Amino acid sequence: MIPAVWPAPMEGVMHPALVAAVNRLKLVPVWMTPFFRVTSQRTPARRLREFIEPFLAGGVPVHVQLMGTDLAALGAAAQEFMKLGAAGINLNFGCPSKQVMRHGSGGGRLRDVPSLLAVVRGVAGALSGAPLSIKLRSGFDRCDSTWYSELRGAGASSVFMHFRTVVEGYRELPFEVALERFSAAAAALDGVTLIANGDIDSAERRDACGSAGCAGVMIGRPWFRDPGLLRRLTGAAGETGDRRCELFQTVVDLAKNDGKFRFFNGRAIELSVMLWGAGNPVLELLKNASDGAWRTIDVLKMMK
Ligand SMILES: Cc1cc2nc3c(=O)[nH]c(=O)nc-3n(C[C@H](O)[C@H](O)[C@H](O)COP(=O)(O)O)c2cc1C
Questions:
Q1: Distance 80 CA to ligand 1 centre (A)
Q2: What is the helix, strand, coil percentage profile of the chain, to 5?
Q3: Cα→Cα distances 145→139, 189, 242, 279, Å
Q4: Pick from 165, 212, 209, 215: which is nearest to 192 by CA?
Q5: 139 and 207, same domain (yes or no)
Q6: Domain of 32: which CATH number?
Q7: Are residues 94 and 166 in the same domain?
Q8: Are 142 and 130 within 8 A, CB to CB?
Q9: Which residue minimizes the CA distance to atom 28 of ligand 1?
Q10: What is the mean pLDDT of the chain?
Q11: Which residue of 135, 136, 159, 162 sits with most ligand 1 atoms within 8 Å of its CB, as the best mutation to test the pocket?
Q12: At 223, is the secondary structure helix, strand, or coil?
């Protein structure tokens, strides 16, 4: 069964210290990893293990997201991750990064639907029945769900759709636009589960996605601004209040006590921006710390 509330994969943000902190605070019911880039060169088993282990440590199902163009290599990596304990595999057809798209990966695939479907078929064949999902934008330069009916035959069991097109990037759009696009996608998908993604920050929006035909929601940036959000949406008792300080403090504590996390000021700055936005006091303090130390105690006092 697909859980109804998912954290969104976030490359560069979901480093091991943050993943460990989220696991410790039990903030997610399931994980989808950020993309793991698969090249035609064989990836050493050790790298695959190091990639998935921090997520598995949380004891919740882990879906590994892959990105790449080499079918044989994608199939082999998918099999390997399943052996390591993944609950399913996800293919990334949504990343709008120009560098990624230049190599024919990510959102760039939406310009060539037959080749996208060929990748799904290829990986599904290698997985022989294990859950395979895809994550995509609603289109490349315009929404297009006419081909969604082919996804089931290709072997995908669910689709995670960020409602903006690749060209729209992260442009502000009214949430009604998202709901229209989710409805159209849900109607076109034939027996494949739709999970809505993009700007879902409340139970009201989650419910509206349900009414539009979505079986669940995936949440990225709004979850950082409100780390208890996923727990609240899954009905956890007593889940109230702002948990950003607690999450930040847990990341820093873990990093201080365990050298393997390689957490440094740059990451602290990035995390503070995700949690509190640009120009937050953590950022100022870290920028001004001449000795490079994290003055987290002061920071946390200021944030409360
Ligand atoms: C910093 C950052 C990293 C991201 N990395 C990934 C990724 O690795 N894989 C992916 O499918 N989407 C990635 N995304 C997109 C998010 O998963 C999500 O689709 C997008 O942020 C919209 O959802 P939201 O409005 O809930 O944040 C990333 C987004 C951000 C901001």
A1: 24
A2: 50, 15, 35
A3: 8, 8, 38, 40
A4: 215
A5: yes
A6: 3.20.20.70
A7: yes
A8: no
A9: 10
A10: 90
A11: 162
A12: helix
Same-domain check for residues 221 and 252: no
Rg (CA), the chain: 19
The span from the CA of 16 to the CA of 193, in Å, is: 30
Q: Is ligand 1 within 6 A of the CB of residue 162?
A: yes
> Is 106 touching ligand 1 by the criterion CB < 6 Å?
no
| Domain extent at residue 279 | 244-303
Separation of 230 CA from ligand 1 center, angstroms?
16
Find out whether the beta carbon of 133 lies less than 6 Å from any atom of ligand 1: no
pTM: 0.94
Question: In this structure, are 145 and 285 located in the same domain?
Answer: no
Q: Using a 6 Å cutoff on CB, does residue 150 contact ligand 1?
A: no
Dist. CA 171 → ligand 1 center (Å) = 14
Q: Is 168 in the pocket of ligand 1 (CB under 6 A)?
A: no
Token look-up 């590994």 returns 64
218 C-alpha vs ligand 1 centroid, how far in Å?
10
Tens digits of residue pLDDT in 206-222: 999 999 999 999 999 99
**Protein residue with its CA nearest to atom 30 in ligand 1:** 10
Which ligand 1 atom sits nearest the alpha carbon of residue 219? 26
Question: Same structural domain for residues 221 and 248?
Answer: no
Residues 259 and 116 in one domain: no
pLDDT digit string, tens, across residues 24-82:
999 999 999 999 999 988 888 999 999 999 999 999 999 999 999 999 999 999 999 99
Number of separate domains in the chain: 2
